[in-house]
Amino acid sequence: MDPNGKVALITGAGSGIGRATSIVLSDAGAQIVVADVNEEGGRETVDMLEKAGGKAAFVATDVTKREDLERMVSFAEETFGGLDIAYNNAGIGTPRPTFPDANAEDWERTVMVDLWAVIAGVQAEVPALKRRGGGVIINTASVAGLIAYAPDPIYAAAKHGVVGLTRSMAALLPEHNIRINCVCPGVVDTPMVRRGLDSMDEAERTRMEAMFSQMPMMPPSDIAAGVMEFIEDDSLTGQAMGLMYGRPRKLVEAPIRFSRDPAQDR
């Protein structure tokens, strides 16, 4: 899909990956609906896009509320006439201490934001994309959704769910001309990651910083480039894209497949 002239809705667009993707899509000619619970950050993104000559509008959105998800889709249609691209990007990590010692309200909110909101967001977006004759959905998962991730098991579980949802909905393409894919970044230099470091005790922060020295943080623009690849390549659906610092973007296949012929299983 050529994003020029299209309408793109991005959750969590008030900072980080969402803002970076908003800028890239706006530069490509898309009209941007900035959806975020952070009104100050969201309006700042809109101001940045408009000053650069783009068209954008902000809608306050708490992705854990179904009515907000439905309202943001209606807002896109009412403001720009439809919806062509939906990027379910909003996400959080689980505050310390690590699960199973984590406070129940904290880990439950992580599941709500990182998984439930993506599922409910897709459900809210598909009817609008159908009304346009098709479109593109991208979800933000994580490398933690592809591997074992001991620092935050709940975050990993939610992101595994996003990958599973995305792969399982590939039939949207032949049925409704809607492609769905997900990006799986490594560590990205975003406010969420910075807040996570600030919440750690000195010993844990030292361990994480040592890990970052081996696996440096990526700029959000690297993830935006992966999102753009999914938007522009009409052959891709049901795919998970791994993005790691210093490495080429890579489509990651499911670890096992079952077929009617056991000899072909892997």
Main sheet attributes: strand count, strand direction, barrel closure:
8 strands, mixed
Give the number of DSSP strands.
Answer: 8
CATH topology, anyone?
A: Rossmann fold
Number of helical segments? 9
The overall average pLDDT, rounded, is: 92
The oligomerization state is: single chain
Low-confidence stretches: none
- Anisotropy-based shape: globular
Q: What is the CATH class?
A: Alpha Beta
The end-to-end span amounts to 33 Å
The strands making up the biggest β-sheet line up spatially as 3-2-1-4-5-6-7-8
Strand content: 15-25%
Q: Quickly give the CATH architecture.
A: 3-Layer(aba) Sandwich
Per CATH, the superfamily is NAD(P)-binding Rossmann-like Domain
* Radius of gyration over all CA atoms, rounded: 18 Å
Helix/sheet category: alpha/beta
Describe the structure.
The chain has 266 residues and is an alpha/beta fold. The chain is built from nine helices and eight strands. It has a single domain, classed as 3-Layer(aba) Sandwich (Rossmann fold). It is globular, with a radius of gyration of 18 Å. Strand 4, helix 4 (104-131) and strand 5 (135-140) form a beta-alpha-beta unit. The model has no long low-confidence stretch (mean pLDDT 92). The chain has an eight-stranded mixed sheet with strand order 3-2-1-4-5-6-7-8, with helices on both faces. Helix 1 (16-27) packs parallel to helix 2 (39-51), helix 1 (16-27) packs across helix 9 and helix 3 runs parallel beside helix 4.
